[in-house]
Model the fold of this input.
Amino acid sequence: MDFVIEQRTVILEGFWMTVRLTVLSGVLSLLFGTVLAVMRVCPIPPLRWAGAFYVTVVRNTPLTLVFVFSTFGLPRLEIRFSFVTFAIIALTVYTSSFVCEVVRSGINSVAAGEIEAARAIGLPFGQTLGQVVLPQAFRAVIPPLTSVFIALTKNTSIAVAFSVAEATSILRRLQNQDASATFPLLLTTAAGYIVLTLFLSFSFSRLERRVAVAR
Amino acid sequence: MQAISDERLIGSDHLLELSNVQKHFGPLHVLKDINLTVDRGEVVVVIGPSGSGKSTLCRAINRLEPIDSGTVKVDGEPLPAEGKALARLRSDVGMVFQSFNLFSHKTALENVTLGPVKVRGLRKAEADERARELLDRVGLAEKADAMPAQLSGGQQQRVAIARALAMEPKLLLFDEPTSALDPEMISEVLDVMVELAGSGMTMIVVSHEMGFARKAAHRVVFMDEGEIVETATPADFFDNPTSRRAKSFLSKILSH
Done:
C-alpha cells in the first residue's frame, strides 16, 4: 500500500486521462449518436439506410478492432493525430452506435399525437424534432444513457493497448515496477473506476429528477 | 363571362374546397369521391357512424392524412406536398384532437406560445401576452403555468383550443373534441366552441354532439361508409332526415 501512496500522483494522472477520454468521447458520442438517431427516423430513405448500416456495422464490431482501425488505419490514409485523439475517435465511433439506439427508442416513446399536433401548428420537421420530440426523448432515456456512459468509462481502458497513459496503463506500468504491490494497485484502480462511475450515475439521476415531467 | 371576372375581383367565398377526394387504407376505401365546399365563417358539423371516414376527412384537410387523388384547396390554394410550404399552410389551419395532444413537457402557456414564436416569429413577450388573453378567453387564465398532466381533460382540451387559436387560423378543424371527455367536462369545451362559432370562425367539427350542432352549426354533413350521404341544416337533418342510412343512424343514437 505504501507503494500506491508513493505513486499517487502518477495514478491520479492516469485517472485524469481516463476522465478526459470519457468526457470528450462522451460529449461527441452524444452529439453524433443523436444525429444518427435522427437519420434513422427521418423521412428520407437513404439517410435512414445509412444510419441503420452504421449501427449494424459498428455496434457489432469489437471495440479493440475499432481502435486498430482508428490508430493504424487512419495513418495509412495520411490522417495523423496523437494516440489520444485516435482513442477519442475510436471511442466516439463505437459509443455513438449505442447512443443512437438509445435515443431512437426515446424518440419512439414520444406520443404520436403530440408529433401530429406539432405538425398541425405548422412546425417543420426540424422544429418538431427540436421543440417537441428530442426534449421528451432525452428525458425518457437518461437511465439507459447512464449505462452507455458507464460502459464508455470502462471501455476507455482498451486504450491501454494503444499507447495512451490512462488509468489501466498506469496500473500495468506500476505493477511492472513492483510486483509485490499488484493487489493494492488492482484494488486502487478498481476503486478509482467505481468512484468515477458512481459520480456519473449520481449526476445523471439528479439530472433525471430535475427534468422529470409528470405524465 | 361577367360572373367569372366578378369572382376574380371579390375572390371566392369558398374557404375550403374538396373535389373528388379519394382515399384508401389498403383494401378499405375510406373516402369515396368526396366533394365539399365550406364558406368563410361557416360552421359545418360532420356526423356519422364510426368507421364512416369522418375523422379521415378532417385529417385530409391539413394533410395529416395524405389523399390518393382529388384536390383539397384551402383559401384557393391546393395543398402542397410535405415540406416548408405545407407547414406554412398548416399554420393557417388549426386542429383540435380527440386526445388533446398537448406537449406534455411544456406548460399550458408554452403550449400556446410555441407556434406563434417558432412559426410566426413573434417576440416571446408579445406571444406570452396574447397567449394569456387566449387562456383567459377559454377560462384558464390561472392555469397558465400548469403542466398538462396537472389539468383535467376538459381543461387540457381548452388549452388545445387556445393553442390552435394562437396561430390566428383561417379555419379550425375539430376531430371528435369531446369524445375522450367525462360527461361533466363536455359542456365546458362545447361552451368555448359555441362562443367561437358565434365569433365568425370557420369550423369543421367531427362530433356527435347534437346539442352543439343545433345551436352552432350552419350545416350538418352526414357520412357513412366513406361517402357524404346527406347535407342539410341541423334542424332538417335531425327532424327530417331524407336518406335511409341517416334515419337508421339517428334512430340508433336517439333511442336511449
Remarks:
- The CA atoms of residues 36 and 51 of chain A lie 5 Å apart.
